[in-house]
């Protein structure tokens, strides 16, 4: 495997670069639309006649992909007041529908995108999410509200598929840079969305207007994805233009198509069966052209193949990931996800009880940290280059820093210490989250990127279930209880990394040899 480090702008054809930029727009609009709805969910459920507890449970972080800003994602669950006198049956139904569906569907839909291709899976998720948010705008009862959450819970995985698509488009060396920019764009959308949603709510029928606007945004995203130059950007180039482009990127090989495969998809880990064979030699008008047809969208089975064949391929990919030696990365992701959620779980209440801060002042601090979290996405590329793409070391150092900052917040004697911890934790968590995703893709292989990213989201969903329970228990003892428990989990993550990293290094050296 060639160790080629080519600049994205030189290595990728112009149309591929255009796809990357359009994916950034899709990520921005996705969370912009979703964040218009989240602060309004509890108020809408109250208007439908539900108890305040149901409303509070609906307004949790279910719709939030923690690939965006961890600050705003973690604080979604603090926007609503909870009254403890509700029907537990209805509360459990409404509050858990989305989370449970996401827990089981993340890996399945991600694997399905590996099987049928990014284009059609992304279009399906966007269109069905648009349907779900449109139904949400027409919900006039709790039953309709729950039904509207089902398509969104099953298919709101557009951001995960976008990350898998970006992983397919760029080389391993450039992947952290591109992922960081995508996370930054998504986070900016999440910050701006509530402003527009709040403005629309001031008018009559504001929730319904926001829901239909969100649905329209997803339809626009689907149209944008449909119009991308997929076939022209993703088909193998001809000998004439590939010679010039590869020469420009300083990539030399006896087989032009194989070299391009190494530049764009370096981390295939022996999973390149179909496209590589088709790439050797000129493209014949018959069989080879058909072999490349699925590679245009990175799919292995046609969307129109029987459902049993698609399910069989999905199951095979999931079994491969489940039986792989990646438990340490997924456990690391779980520890840090719960730790960060515990940090933010009672942030507003702790600021009021510990430092007598008014909600308005706490809101300013939250906005400050959220903005830093979004901007930190642009630091990922330079930092990874500083570490020479040693993602394991970077993950260890960012985890140690995050652990120290949570400890500083838990023991903070003044507000200024909280400001200091909020400043740097937004940066450390953004870098750490990108590192762990990149390590999962490195070890799992690019051909299963959708499955791997989906599995990571499922692990995070488990954290969403555990964090509120642990936070409630810890808060019984002290307002500092949740972040203190978060420190313990972060220390466990550091210990796990310290033990497992030498094995990753030895395995990597063995593969190179």
Automatic annotation (TrEMBL):
<feature type="transmembrane region" description="Helical">
    <location>
        <begin position="207"/>
        <end position="228"/>
    </location>
</feature>
<keyword id="KW-0812">Transmembrane</keyword>
<dbReference type="InterPro" id="IPR011701">
    <property type="entry name" value="MFS"/>
</dbReference>
<dbReference type="GO" id="GO:0016020">
    <property type="term" value="C:membrane"/>
</dbReference>
<feature type="transmembrane region" description="Helical">
    <location>
        <begin position="120"/>
        <end position="148"/>
    </location>
</feature>
<dbReference type="InterPro" id="IPR020846">
    <property type="entry name" value="MFS_dom"/>
</dbReference>
<feature type="transmembrane region" description="Helical">
    <location>
        <begin position="182"/>
        <end position="201"/>
    </location>
</feature>
<feature type="transmembrane region" description="Helical">
    <location>
        <begin position="394"/>
        <end position="412"/>
    </location>
</feature>
<feature type="transmembrane region" description="Helical">
    <location>
        <begin position="327"/>
        <end position="345"/>
    </location>
</feature>
<keyword id="KW-0813">Transport</keyword>
<keyword id="KW-0472">Membrane</keyword>
<keyword id="KW-1133">Transmembrane helix</keyword>
<dbReference type="GO" id="GO:0022857">
    <property type="term" value="F:transmembrane transporter activity"/>
</dbReference>
<protein>
    <recommendedName>
        <fullName>Major facilitator superfamily (MFS) profile domain-containing protein</fullName>
    </recommendedName>
</protein>
<feature type="transmembrane region" description="Helical">
    <location>
        <begin position="21"/>
        <end position="41"/>
    </location>
</feature>
<dbReference type="InterPro" id="IPR036259">
    <property type="entry name" value="MFS_trans_sf"/>
</dbReference>
<feature type="transmembrane region" description="Helical">
    <location>
        <begin position="365"/>
        <end position="387"/>
    </location>
</feature>
<comment type="similarity">
    <text>Belongs to the major facilitator superfamily.</text>
</comment>
<dbReference type="Pfam" id="PF07690">
    <property type="entry name" value="MFS_1"/>
</dbReference>
<feature type="domain" description="Major facilitator superfamily (MFS) profile">
    <location>
        <begin position="19"/>
        <end position="507"/>
    </location>
</feature>
């Amino acid at each position: 495997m060639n160790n080629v480090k080519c600049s994205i702008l030189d290595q990728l054809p112009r149309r591929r670069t255009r796809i990357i930029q359009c994916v950034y727009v899709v990520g921005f609009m996705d969370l912009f639309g979703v964040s218009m709805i989240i602060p309004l969910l509890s108020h809408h459920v109250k208007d439908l006649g539900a108890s305040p507890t149901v409303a509070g449970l609906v307004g949790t972080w279910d719709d939030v992909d923690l690939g965006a800003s961890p600050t705003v994602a973690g604080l979604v669950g603090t926007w609503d007041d909870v009254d403890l006198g509700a029907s537990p049956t209805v509360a459990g139904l409404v509050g858990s529908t989305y989370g449970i569906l996401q827990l089981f569907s993340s890996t399945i839909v991600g694997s399905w995108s590996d099987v049928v291709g990014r284009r059609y899976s992304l279009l399906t998720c966007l269109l069905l999410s648009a349907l779900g948010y449109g139904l949400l705008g027409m919900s006039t009862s709790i039953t309709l509200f729950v039904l509207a959450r089902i398509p969104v819970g099953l298919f709101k995985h557009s951001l995960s598929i976008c990350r898998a698509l970006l992983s397919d488009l760029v080389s391993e060396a450039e992947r952290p840079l591109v992922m960081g920019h995508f996370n930054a764009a998504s986070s900016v959308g999440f910050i701006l969305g509530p402003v527009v949603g709040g403005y629309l709510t001031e008018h009559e029928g504001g929730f319904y207007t926001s829901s239909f606007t969100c649905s329209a945004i997803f339809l626009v995203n689907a149209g944008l994805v449909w119009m991308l130059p997929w076939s022209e950007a993703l088909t193998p180039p001809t000998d004439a233009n590939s010679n010039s482009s590869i020469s420009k990127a300083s990539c030399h090989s006896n087989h032009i198509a194989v070299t391009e495969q190494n530049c764009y998809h370096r981390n295939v880990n022996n999973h390149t069966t179909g496209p590589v064979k088709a790439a050797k030699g000129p493209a014949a008008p018959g069989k080879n052209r058909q072999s490349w047809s699925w590679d245009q969208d990175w799919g292995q089975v046609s969307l129109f193949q029987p459902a049993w064949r698609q399910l069989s391929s999905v199951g095979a990919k999931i079994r491969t990931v489940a039986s792989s030696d990646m438990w340490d990365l997924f456990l690391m992701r779980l520890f840090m996800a719960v730790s960060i959620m515990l940090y933010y779980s009672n942030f507003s209440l702790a600021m009021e009880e510990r430092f007598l801060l008014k909600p308005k002042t706490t809101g300013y601090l939250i906005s400050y940290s959220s903005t830093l979290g979004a901007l930190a996405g642009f630091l990922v590329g330079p930092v990874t280059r500083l570490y020479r793409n040693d993602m394991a070391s970077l993950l260890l150092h960012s985890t140690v820093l995050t652990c120290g900052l949570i400890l500083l917040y838990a023991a903070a004697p003044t507000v200024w210490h909280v400001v200091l911890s909020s400043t740097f934790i937004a940066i450390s968590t953004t870098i750490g989250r990108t590192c762990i995703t990149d390590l999962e893709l490195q070890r799992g292989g690019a051909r299963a990127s959708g499955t791997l990213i989906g599995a990571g989201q499922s692990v995070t969903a488990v954290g969403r279930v555990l964090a509120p329970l642990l936070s409630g228990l810890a808060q019984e003892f002290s307002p500092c209880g949740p972040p203190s428990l978060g420190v313990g989990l972060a220390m466990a993550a550091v210990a796990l990394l310290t033990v497992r990293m030498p094995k990753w290094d030895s395995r990597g050296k063995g593969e190179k040899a």
